[in-house]
Amino acid sequence: MKVDHMKGVVIFNNLNLESDGMRDHLMIFAEFLSKARAMIIPPSKKASKLGDLLPSLGEVVEKEHKKLLARKSIIEKRKEEQERQLLEMEREEESKRLKLQKITEEAEQKRLAVEYEQRKNQRIMREIEERELEEAQALLQEAEKRSKKKGKKPLIEGEKVTKQTLMELALSEQLRERQEMEKKLQKLAKTMDYLERAKREEAAPLIEAAFQRRLVEEKVLHEREQQQEVELSRQRHDGDLREKNRLARMLDHKTQFQERVMSHRQAEYNRLRAEREERINQILQQRRQEREYKRKMLFFLRTEEERLRKLQEEEEARKREEAERKRKEEAERRQSWMRLLKSRDRGSVS
């Protein structure tokens, strides 16, 4: 670095101006130069009023401008807030209107449904009453027909009757007919009871005689079946003996065939057993080889991992030493620059 006092410039050689150390050097050098200039040429205390007022006027204008901007921002925010509130009120009114409309529609639907149910129930009641009236009239006409056949006086003679009257007359007629029917049935039941009792008394000796005959027939049938079963058992036993004698001639051949089959099966079993043991031994050998391979692979991986870890630690230690060395060199270079600047400052002052 060179200082040209004639031209008022500082000449640097091939130095990197972008480094942090160089920026620090320049700042320190600028501060020392400012102090030297203040010592050589002290600042003038007399200044014009306009020069004093200009900075204050600029600050006032800047403050007023900032106040206007802040006020404008506040006014815009208030307008946005008012618009948002109006929009919220419109939304709430619209929501209330829709809810009221929905409630009104639901109430109208419920009213229409109630009216429909009422009309339906009234129609059903009218149909039921008309059907009951028709049934009562039919019952009454039927009762009048029966009373005319029996030569009795008609129940109603040319007078206008109501539904209740028709129902009472029909029910009373039905009750009377039911009572007469019950009396007839009771009389018929007594007659049938007498007849059934007489029938049983007459049939008892006949049933006993038939039972005795049935016992004799079943006894004879049982004895006959026993004799047939004994005869069949004797025949089956004789047939079995003949079959045994016939098959006894093949006993030697059967024994030889059985021994030949058993020997063949034993040989096949021994072969399959040997193959199975050989296959099991191969599987065990393969599994031992796989375990040995895994063990060696794990040892190799652990060793390689330990080696890489040591290399990484050595690299980190080397980087730390390099950084420490650079930091010390930078500190020494900074101290040398400081000494050089101080010497330059002393030279320029003198």
3D structure, described in words:
The chain is an all-alpha fold and 350 residues long. Helices cover 88% and strands 2% of the residues. The chain has a two-stranded antiparallel sheet with strand order 1-2. Helix 1 (20-40) runs parallel beside helix 4 (251-349) and helix 2 (49-149) crosses helix 3. It is flat, with a radius of gyration of 67 Å.
Question: What would a concise description of this structure say?
Answer:
Helices cover 88% and strands 2% of the residues. The chain is mainly alpha-helical and 350 residues long.
* Arithmetic mean pLDDT: 80
What would the principal axes of the Cα set say about the shape? flat
Q: Into which percentage range does the β-strand content fall? A: under 5%
Poorly predicted ranges (pLDDT <50, ≥5 residues)?
15-19, 46-50, 153-160
Cα radius of gyration in angstroms: 67 Å
Based on secondary structure, the structural category is: mainly alpha
Biggest sheet: strands, sense, closure?
2 strands, antiparallel
Question: What is the secondary structure topology, with strand pairs?
Answer:
Elements: E1 2-4, E2 9-11, H1 20-40, H2 49-149, H3 163-248, H4 251-349
Helix pairs in contact: 1-4, 2-3
